[in-house]
Amino acid sequence: MILFENISKSFFDGKKQVQAVDDFNLRIRPGEFVCIVGASGCGKSTLLNMVAGFNKPSSGQILLNGEPVTGIDPRCGMIFQSYALFPWKTVLGNVEFGLKMQGIPRQQRQEIAGKYIDMVGLTSFADSYPCELSGGMRQRVTIARALANNPEILLMDEPFAALDAMTRQVLQEELLRIVDESNKTTLFITHSIDEAILLADRIVIMSARPGRVKDDLRINLPRPRHVTDQLATEYLDLKASIWSSVEEEVRQNMLFNA
Amino acid sequence: MSRLAQYRTMIISIISVIVFGLIWELSGRLGWISTVFLPTPSAIFQEGMALLRSGILQADILASTRRVLVGFLISAAVAVPLGLILGTSEVLKAVFDPIISIIRPLPALSWIPLSMLWLGIGESQKYAIVFMGAFAPTLVYIIDATKRVDPLLIKAAQNLGASRWAVLREVVLPGALPNILSGLKVVLAVAWTCIISAEMVGASNGLGFRIWNAKDWGNTPQVLLGMVSISLTVLVMDQIFKQLERKLVPWERG
Ligand SMILES: Nc1ncnc2c1ncn2[C@@H]1O[C@H](COP(=O)(O)OP(=O)(O)O)[C@@H](O)[C@H]1O
Ligand SMILES: [Mg+2]
Questions:
Q1: Does residue B20 share a domain with residue B44?
Q2: Which mutation among A15, A45, A190 tests ligand 1's pocket best, with the greatest number of atoms within 8 A of CB?
Q3: What is the interface pTM, i.e. ipTM, of the complex?
């Protein structure tokens, strides 16, 4: 469970104060898959970084399963948009990294890592270096690396935004399968409404900066879901209603930054 | 570059060396240039064969190379860990910065008199000169390489549970390694400058000594032979270093 209690965060960039997040409140239940959608610059990454402990809130606190986040927290598995794979480690070396940090013996951790590499379909690339992989394959490795460490919570910051449309669909499909299996609490940031509807149990729409919760929608589409479900009328209706909510914020954001 | 283009470049280079050598040889033989000033390649070659037969040349190359390697390795052994620590700790860097900034501008050769006063002209003085010449630049290269490691990778490692020490060993060191190695390659050249100068000032063998000694006897072929030997030795070491680099950073080949 993730609990945001009156979270505010401001940055001081040289001369002026930037209020990135203002009085953000949210309760995410165990096992829930929550997508945060919002205009760019509204503070989504800032929120995620605070959950992972990379940044401290200016005020308020974040509780993970009742315990406050006080530093960089391995209970959260972070999946970065730019992969952040270790270029000097092979796929196996990357995936087993967290287990190595836990002090799990070599043989055992390679076994566990192998299972997750298999899960993302990269067994034949276990000994390849990240530079030898495509973007989609790299993001698979990142997902396997986070999962192998068995975190309580998955944090994903626009993980598929840098991928081409078709690779993105394949990965979305895989993520759906993985998430259905592992049932981990997941906080997923995206600026794609389609992606949010496809993946989420719940979509949180953020206001333009400073970010707050503007809308909080439950997505009751049945699971398992598939990329092809995006053609159903039910789905399109949802998309239209979410877009009308987001549009306002995007327009405001454009004026604001003009 | 394609295979074919590579061969072409190589052939052009070889022809260039041959033509250049022939012109040099001919201008000596035909009396265009006095061989007292510039001996012909064949004279240098003969001098080389003579010194090889007597074993002097090998001994000199070995002596200089050993001094360079010992001094360089000791310096690297101290500077690499220290640099990694200073590169990741603002506090320690602030402590050491004044000392580094005073030592760094000193040309390595300016240590020669002091080192002779302290250590005489034996082997330890040679190692010390190379060490002093190599240490400060190595440290600066390491600190710089450390600071250029992608901070996102450090975050990722911490997120996966890495301790401070594990981040240093697993992320900062390998992340900085490519830049560390290219820094060390530059420092290796500096180490050669140090040792040749030190041998010229006070030594009884080594390539620097050989050149200086030949000058005293007016033996121009030997002076040039010494210079050619330095050049070839440094080239060979550079190649070995490049191989080592490929071994140590296999992930950069892709
Ligand atoms: N380290 C920082 N220093 C200064 N300003 C920052 C920093 N990080 C984020 N910001 C600002 O905070 C706002 C929210 O950023 P971010 O959370 O990255 O937005 P999003 O991920 O929603 O696009 C932006 O206006 C951004 O410029
Ligand atoms: Mg962002």
A1: no
A2: A45
A3: 0.91
